[in-house]
Task: inverse folding
RNA sequence: GGGCACGUAGUCUAGCUAGGACAAGGCGACGGCCUCCUAAGCCGUAUGUCAAGGGUUCGAAUCCCUUCGUGCCCGCCA
């Protein structure tokens, strides 16, 4: 795992050298060594803390430590202000970076030596209609994280927790069985989720207008839960006055809508490893077991017939009676709630994984905290981690499926791909129709995913078409373009060098900068994974592409007359190509060979 | 009422977890670069009380406190 990474090796060596001198000067001090912001040095020793202990000027200490340190062929030292700057020998370091990358090209990401089982739950949107852009960050963050864990060597599975027992779904089911399709507007897309969402929307309208509809839906919900609990999937759950609905129809409806939703995910290069249905944890008795367990808790209280955990001693905040801190886990009629089923699911999940990560909208913060507390109360030694994201909003405000004030993910994607197509056609007249299609799709999907992942999840995003579909500057196409350029050079240069080139001919600053940049890949991936900060990869790849563009500008490859140097530069292109395509792969963005 | 987030140039963001040298990019604006490996690129110019105030520190965008603004949540809904 990252053995022999030059960045780590050099900084460890520098620290050791500093420590050697410091042991005689101020043995108790732990030196502060960091990477300086400005260019011109690779590391610096911050001398202010030492100055404070020794009660001498930092500037003086910096130069004194500098002169006391033994000469090392790997670097040059220079005192500046209160800092002792360390600049690596440029050719030596670049050569080491290149050699490291070349030797590890096929397993650059691996950072764990023993696989740990990780389950990442994400998306988990109610199966009642197409995805809208408001929650589009969820599958993108979740899938990106999954890909990164996998690249880093973890054993990882992504799970979609399907809510097939909630009211939203029952509204949809009621609608499908009670509304005449002829009365509905034609669907905007021939896809199950788009076809069926109109039933959901119309059912909502009828429910708001007619209280008896809501009563019927609630009753269906109750009968459905009993049927599932008792294994009676064939049982009729609807009442006298409305169309006959069987328990199994609910699951069928969910699966139909989900088929459509899976299609949207696949279009985004998002693939789930498994779908876990809520009804499954009810059916197999997990929910019942959880309820029994919670009833034994010292925090358990009963009011009416309902049971809850009293969390007022744990959760902070005001104790006004209107804002009770209760984790209710059974209704007075004895039935379970969503949170109870969620708890059962998590208990099972934590049992089969070392780490469980949930990608959740910011509206789930409170609930997620409650869930964690309930798990602890049940004696679970593990609690899921949560990665929260803020919603994508429209310039005019929040999106809502119910009120039909949405941008559908499918529409956004289609627009992105068609916008990409016009860009491709603008530049390339030599491509076949299929090639144009393929490049447009890769660029369109990439632009979309990049835009959603580049921002820290907890920061809000306002959706604007012109930003989302901007193909210039810090964007996926910018990175893909550099990749395509590298591919083109390699192709025209006769393919990647069969053997490791002699890196000794590296002279140009932009060659060295490119290598320094690229060698950061394993470290960035590690930070993305262990810090659960997938957005860092986006910025890193922009930097890589930018460094490659500098190299491209300064260093002709195919026109280079000196054969070893030409080979070395094709080697550099190969390294850049592979690091960029690995990084893009982590982001679920395809790297075109040509564009 | 309370809890939890967020606030960085016209605009969008990085940097904040682990405080360090003049706050880094993108878009937009303006001006340049295709007889040379893909101009989705490159070069240059202009733009900032890092929301405000206080504190800790040799040093604060970063840590602490207060205030303001925005969003989310506080159901025997999911």
Result:
């Amino acid at each position: 795992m990252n053995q022999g990474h030059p960045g780590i090796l050099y900084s460890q060596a520098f620290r050791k050298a500093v420590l050697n001198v410091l042991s005689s000067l101020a043995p108790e001090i732990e030196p502060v060594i960091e990477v300086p912001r400005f260019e011109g040095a690779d590391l610096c020793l911050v001398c202010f803390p030492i100055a404070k202990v020794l009660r001498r000027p930092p500037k003086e200490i910096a130069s004194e430590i500098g002169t006391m340190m033994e000469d090392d062929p790997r670097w040059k030292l220079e005192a500046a202000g209160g800092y002792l700057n360390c600049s690596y020998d440029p050719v030596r370091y670049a050569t080491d970076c290149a050699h490291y990358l070349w030797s590890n090209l096929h397993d650059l990401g691996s950072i764990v030596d023993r696989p740990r089982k990780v389950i990442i739950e994400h998306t988990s949107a109610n199966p009642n209609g197409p995805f809208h852009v408001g929650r589009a960050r969820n599958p993108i963050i979740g899938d990106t994280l999954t890909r990164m864990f996998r690249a880093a060597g973890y054993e990882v599975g992504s799970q979609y927790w399907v809510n097939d027992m909630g009211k939203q779904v029952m509204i949809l089911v009621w609608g499908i069985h009670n509304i005449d399709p002829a009365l509905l507007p034609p669907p905007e897309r021939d896809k199950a989720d788009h076809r069926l969402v109109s039933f959901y929307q119309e059912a909502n309208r009828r429910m708001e207008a007619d209280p008896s509809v809501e009563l019927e839906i609630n009753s269906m919900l109750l009968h459905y839960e009993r049927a599932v609990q008792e294994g009676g999937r064939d049982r009729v759950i609807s009442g006298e006055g409305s169309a006959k609905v069987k328990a199994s129809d609910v699951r069928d409806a969910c699966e139909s809508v989900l088929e459509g939703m899976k299609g949207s995910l696949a279009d985004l290069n998002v693939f789930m490893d498994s779908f876990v249905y809520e009804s499954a944890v009810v059916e197999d008795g997990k929910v019942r077991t959880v309820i029994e367990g919670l009833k034994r808790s010292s925090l358990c209280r009963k009011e009416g017939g309902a049971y809850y955990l009293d969390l007022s001693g744990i959760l902070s905040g005001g104790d006004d009676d209107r804002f009770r801190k209760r984790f209710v886990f059974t209704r007075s009629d004895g039935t379970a709630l969503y949170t109870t089923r969620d708890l059962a699911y998590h208990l099972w999940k934590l049992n089969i994984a070392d780490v469980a990560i949930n990608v959740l909208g910011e509206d789930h913060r409170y609930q997620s905290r409650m869930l964690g507390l309930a798990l602890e109360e049940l004696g679970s030694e593990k609690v899921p981690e949560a990665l929260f994201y803020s919603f994508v909003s429209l310039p005019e405000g929040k999106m809502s499926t119910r009120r039909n004030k949405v941008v559908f993910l499918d529409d956004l994607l289609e627009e992105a791909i068609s916008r990409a197509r016009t860009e491709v056609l603008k530049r390339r007249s030599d491509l076949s129709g299929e090639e144009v299609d393929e490049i447009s799709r890769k660029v369109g999907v990439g632009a979309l995913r990049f835009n959603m992942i580049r921002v820290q999840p907890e920061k809000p995003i306002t959706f604007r078409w012109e930003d989302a579909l901007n193909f210039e500057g810090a964007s996926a196409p910018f990175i893909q373009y550099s990749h395509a350029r590298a591919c083109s050079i390699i192709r025209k240069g006769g393919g990647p060098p069969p053997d490791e080139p002699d890196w000794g001919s590296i002279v140009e600053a932009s060659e060295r900068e490119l290598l320094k940049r690229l060698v950061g890949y394993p470290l960035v991936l590690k930070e993305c994974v262990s810090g659960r900060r997938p957005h860092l990869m986006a910025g890193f790849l922009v930097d890589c592409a930018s460094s490659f563009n500098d190299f491209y500008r300064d260093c002709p490859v195919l026109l280079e007359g000196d054969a070893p140097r030409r080979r070395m530069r094709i080697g550099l292109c190969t390294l850049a190509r592979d690091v960029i395509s690995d990084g893009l792969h982590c982001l679920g963005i395809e790297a075109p060979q040509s564009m």
User: Anything to note?
Assistant: The mean pLDDT of chain A is 92.
